[in-house]
Amino acid sequence: MNCRKSYKGAALIISMIFVLIFSALAVSMATLSGTNVQIAENQRKANCARACAQSGLEIIRLWSNQVSIPGDTPENQQFDLIADCFQSTVTGISNIAPEYDGSCLTIPTIAFDSTKGQNFSAQITQIGLQTLQVDVTGMYGELTKTISVNFVFGTRAHNVFDFGVATKGPLSLSGNIELEGVNISVESSVYIE
Questions:
Q1: Which of 51, 58, 179, 192 counts the highest number of beta carbons within 10 A?
Q2: Please, are residues 105 and 99 in contact by the beta-carbon 8 Å criterion?
Q3: What residues pair up with 124 in beta bridges, in sequence order?
Q4: Phi, psi values for residue 117, rounded to 5°
């Protein structure tokens, strides 16, 4: 009987040890789940910034498809012509004036959703005779993501394709003839070689 009296209260101590171990595990699990929520929120914000950059790149691609370089434009003036086309396109669509300093065309911040801080900006520089580097920065709140892409552009082999009608011989038109171009007025002209 003396042996039994000496272990009185041991179960209480062991149960307290288990309670402390399990409470420490519970606190660590709660901290871990809170950290996971913060990581997920950071990834969501980063993905929103990346999506803004990708959307901005698609808009730049759409605007660049509207650029038409005549075949007889000298190579050293092609980027100036591209910058002029971008400036007129962007100003006409969004009332935002791009800045061109002779070597870099900067498109200022254009908002997708101003309440959430979703917007993009872009810089276009010529890195070769027929290569443009486009850096599009997407912003979501305080986060930014930048996508850098090289666009290769080219001119047509001959400026004959700038005209609506081309012939190697005489052209005879009679009656009330009207030539109209689809995109620009030079397409309605006649090229006779």
A1: 51
A2: yes
A3: 105, 134
A4: 75, 30
pLDDT attached to residue 70: 76
Which residues are paired to 193 by β-bridges?
Answer: none
Q: How far is CA 105 from the centre of its chain?
A: 15
Q: Which of 124, 132, 147, 148 is nearest to 52 (CA)?
A: 147
125: left (phi over 0), alpha (psi -120 to 50) or beta: beta
111, HSE (Cβ side, Cα atoms, 13 Å):
7
List the pLDDT tens digit at each of the 193 positions of the chain: 455 566 777 888 888 898 999 888 888 888 877 788 888 889 999 999 999 999 999 999 988 888 877 777 788 888 888 888 888 888 777 778 888 898 899 999 988 888 888 999 999 999 988 899 999 999 998 899 999 999 987 665 555 555 666 677 777 777 777 666 555 555 556 655 5
Closest Cα partner for 118 from 137, 96, 140, 136? 140
In this structure, which amino acid lies at residue 165? V
Binning the chain into helix, strand and coil, the percentages to the nearest 5 are 45, 25, 30
Domain ranges of the chain: 41-152, 159-192
Cross-strand partners of 145: 138
Rg, C-alpha atoms of the chain: 33
Contact 139, 111 (CB under 8 A): no
Q: What is the dihedral of CA 63, 64, 70, 74, to 10 degrees?
A: 130
